[in-house]
Amino acid sequence: MQPAISRIQAPVGFFYSVMMTFLHYQLCSDGFFCINTPLFFIEITMPTQHTLTTKERFAIPRQEMPAQRADERNKNFKEVNLGYTAELAQKEALRCIQCKDPACIKGCPVNIKIDQFIKLISDGNFLGAARKIKEDNVLPAICGRVCPQEDQCEKTCILTKKHRSVAIGNLERFAADYERETGNVELPTVKASTGKTIAVIGSGPAGLSCANDLIQLGHSVTVFEALHELGGVLVYGIPEFRLPKDIVKSEIDGLKKLGVNFIPNAVAGRSVTVDELLKEEGFDAVFIGVGAGLPWFLGIPGENLLGVYSANEFLTRVNLMKSYQFPDNDTPVFNCKGKNVAVFGGGNTAMDAVRTAKRLGAEHASIVYRRSEAEMPARLEEVHHAKEEGIEFLMLMNPLEFIGNDQQWLTGAKCLRMELGEPDESGRRRPVPIKDSEFILPIDMAVISIGNGSNPLIKQTTPDIEVSKRDTIVVDINTMATSKEDVYAGGDIVTGGATVILAMGAGRTAAKAIHEKLMGTVIQ
Amino acid sequence: MHKIVSTIFLAENIKKIEIEAPRIAKKRKAGQFIMIRVGQTGERVPLTIADSDPEKGTITIIVQGMGKSTRELNSKEAGDTVSDIVGPLGTPSHIEKFGTAVSIGGGVGTAIAYPTAVALKEAGNYVITINGARSKELVILENEMKAVSDEAYITTDDGSYGFHGFVTQKLQELIDSGKKIDYVLAIGPIPMMRAIAEVTRPYHIKTMVSLNPIMVDGTGMCGGCRVTVDNQIKFACVDGPEFDAHQVDFKNLTDRNKLYLPEEKQSAEAFSHQCNLQ
To answer: DSSP characters for chain B?
Structure first.
């Protein structure tokens, strides 16, 4: 690579203007030029979007996300994905054909103006891109990392018909990281005070997005969080290697700067009830975003043996309590070093748990799932990363019983082999036991990751909020209003275990409805 | 941050600590607990609330220095702070007019038996308290227990004070004397609670115990504190901590509480070493 401007060769049709004089260029193998310079020096406009032919555009391969090497990252808790560089991001952005009626936007639960922000990235206006995303999504650095884009925006991308979709999630993450890392986060304007006060219960994705919208509309917002750290599942559930906690902290700091008041260590239904918030503390409305609750267990013998954990407990110990840093942090966790760890379940939480066990030194860290890999609900990227890291996938196996030694430590799981039968009501092929196929899987630790029930505290203390048979809160999906006047709810407490972005969407819907109800006006 | 208002040692290694926590002071009921985190790298430790003063906005906990976290907490003095307190957690004690109610505290368990004895008395029960300890020096809350009791007994294992023997023997003696007992609450070491359950079982006396499994969040999210009651999984933090003694699987609780013995020992030793250096 030569830092000489004369070396630049761009494909025919390109025109560029460089505002800074000390940029370094590199001619890449596929004929496009890259910019090799720290992000914050770049001030460049490259209006290339309309100058590429469709053929040229299609010739650009989807840009892979740079990542830590698998054999290194499975021993540390640092983030796996390293993020696009500016040149990778621009090159990827050029793949977008700027549809007139972009299907990707309809695939996004919060309808981010995807075509517009991608155009801004290809133009080199990274800050502009970040701000465009933030018009619709409060937490882009988080969603860019944890959204299941392959099932949402990227699934509906027109390119998937013939090529691979535009890497919308990677681009979203790039723009948000660029804005944050360059210290250019711009606080949105907050409207004049309305004099209304709203209590938000839970500081997870639903609560944060609801609080963000309400504060910008001029309301006074107080967020109550049960744990000592803010962020809900973003902090206790999703591991550091997938979502660095500094990013969550910085997003929450932004809300604090806007004036949102956060009260940690306040458990709704115990420290304070919904009725007390409305009647005694004078809140005009309450939004409940307490997330999922009690973890489910398998209900098989031996589940209370030493070494059997819920995924929630295992992940909370490691993520929230930082037991991977024991003894520097006081909270211990099962010593996985050299042990056989099996995680029962096939969702994203199961992937988080099994990859965590591997990082804690497990010799064998396996996913045990009763269906086949095709039916696993986990994101493809997580499965792919897990495999690279040496996670073993034991498919079509169903645990019958956990077996322990005389000290009650787990030594194995009696399992049954399964085969796939006819599709069940979920549309997935039903696992059917194979006769006489029982065997003992030798394991030292079992993590149960089969989902969660609902938090019972709200129901117990606020009986006039209608709940479903599954104890989730019943709402009007257009407003997220519950059966109780001035009380709204959203996120996993309404849907059961779902995604960060769906929870955020619910928080925003509720914020709009709360505003309209309190102010007697309609937001267009 | 929560400021410690006052501290006093009630017995060797057992400290009474009054801490500012206005919201909790206002709301707490007998039998409920808090999770406390002493410092920024600390564990979340469950401790039952012994008393509260809603006017002053303070709660009182009684702490026996066992592992690192409780010893670190016991090293705090008035004016010091702790990072986090959350509560009141758990289902409050079920209080009603049973008739004659016996509240039994073993060792530091008396700190938990006491507030429930107060509530039982307020509900109009004839309250008998049995306050057990290994020896005279370890008896705590003697005057407080006496003040809420219609009959108050002290037992010591070594006979250095009060009745010579275990709380179970005293309870058996009361039953044998023909006293009609309608309700027993027993709080103390697991072997004691297990033994009390066996004393009352043949007489079908309703008996409750407060369980102390290992917890992480204390709000029902992790399931680490699961206990087996009536062959069902219950979460002590939300379904308890008080359960029917005749239905609790005490063996499973004893086993599960051994989960982190090596790590607890390692932390405690490191803490002792650090104290010795200072």
So the answer is: -EEEEEEEEEETTEEEEEEE-HHHHHH--TT-EEEEE-STT---EEEEEEEEETTTTEEEEEEE--SHHHHHHHT--TT-EESEEEEEESPPP-----SEEEEEEEGGGHHHHHHHHHHHHHTT-EEEEEEEESSGGG--SHHHHHHH-SEEEEEETTSSSSEES-HHHHHHHHHHTT----EEEEESSHHHHHHHHHHHGGGT-EEEEE-----SSSSSSS-TTEEEETTEEEEHHHH-SEEEGGGB-HHHHHHHTTTTHHHHHHHHHHHHHHHHH-
pLDDT band for position A456 (50/70/90)? Answer: confident
- Identify the pLDDT of residue A524: 65
CB–CB contact B41 A332 (8 Å): no
Verify whether the Cβ–Cβ distance A330 to B23 is below 8 Å. no
**A461 burial type by CB count under 10 A (0-12 exposed, 13-18 middle, 19+ buried):** middle
Binned at pLDDT 50, 70 and 90, residue A49 comes out as: low
HSE of B167, CA atoms in CB hemisphere, 13 A: 34
User: Interface pTM (ipTM) of the complex?
Assistant: 0.91
- pLDDT tens for B1-25 read 999 999 999 988 899 999 999 999 9
State the burial class of residue B266 (Cβ atoms within 10 Å of its Cβ: 0-12, 13-18, 19+): middle
B219, A228: Cβ pair inside 8 Å? no
By CA distance, what is A296's nearest residue in B?
A: B223
B24 and B52 in contact (C-beta within 8 Å)? Answer: yes
Residues of chain B in contact with residue A335, where contact means CB-CB under 8 angstroms, are 262-263
Q: Look up residue B110 and give its two tokens.
A: 């008396």
